[in-house]
Amino acid sequence: MRLLIAVLLLANLAVFAWTHWLSAPSTEHGTLLGAEQLPALKLRSEVPIAPVQRRCLALGPFRDEGEAGQAVKLLEPGGYSPSVTTRQAQTTAGFLVYVGNIASAQGQARIIARLRQGGLGDAVAIPFHEGDLERRVSVGLFSERDRAARRAQVVQRIGFKPLISDQTRDVPQYWLELQVEEGEAERNLGAFAAGQGALRLESCAPAAAS
To answer: pTM surpassing 0.70?
Structure first.
């Protein structure tokens, strides 16, 4: 009987020793992994680095090259390297009041005479070019639509049907183009544009085909 108790006691001691000392070592926070269970270590040079995503953004328009140059000086300390580019844009040159649908040069002359008799001494013939569908008489070019509308009322009282045409002209616009990392750098540039009032931030214009 004593022998049986001794055998059972030794068996319990063996199980205790295996679970607490001979199995994987443990700490107060958990069981430590054996060397064969640890993930393989990699050198920093072996870890793949995600490529930095960059995009071209255009900031503008600026009124002239000098204003664009001032913006370059403000952006360069922030790590940006902008280049100044130009684009052609249309702007309103004024509002032309005229009488149209005139069939001949003689009819054009008669209308000019009547307009001048009515007090519009600046009535002149608009040059007629090959391919034009009608002859026209100008009765003034105005910088404001309201003034053009008042002149049109005078023309109408004299007895003709006036028309108002928006006149445009091409002007250069100055922009900054920058290669910007997506994320914080792009957001910072957007905040800069918002703080400058009339400036816009947009994707760069596609390169012209060669």
So the answer is: no
Six token digits for residue 167: 């006149």
- Chain center to CA of 167: 27
- 117-162, pLDDT tens digit by residue? 999 999 999 999 888 889 999 999 999 999 999 999 999 999 999 9
Strand-pair partners of 195: none
Contact present, 164 and 97 (Cβ < 8 Å):
yes
Q: Please name the amino acid found at residue 200.
A: R
How far apart are the C-alpha atoms of 20 and 25, rounded to whole Å? 8
What distance in Å separates the CA atoms of residue 185 and residue 78, rounded to the nearest whole number? 9
The three-state secondary structure class of 128 is coil
- Contact partners, residue 210, CB within 8 Å, separation at least 6: none
Q: How many Cβ atoms from other residues are within 10 Å of residue 82's Cβ? A: 22
Distance of CA 9 to the CA centre of its chain: 83
- Please name the residues in contact with 129: beta carbons below 8 A apart, sequence gap of 6 or more: none
Closest CA to 89 of 34, 161, 169, 12: 169
How far is 18 from 42, CA to CA, in rounded Å?
A: 34
Helices 105-117/145-158 angle, 10° precision: 100
Question: Residue 60 burial by CB count (10 A; 0-12/13-18/19+): exposed, middle or buried?
Answer: buried
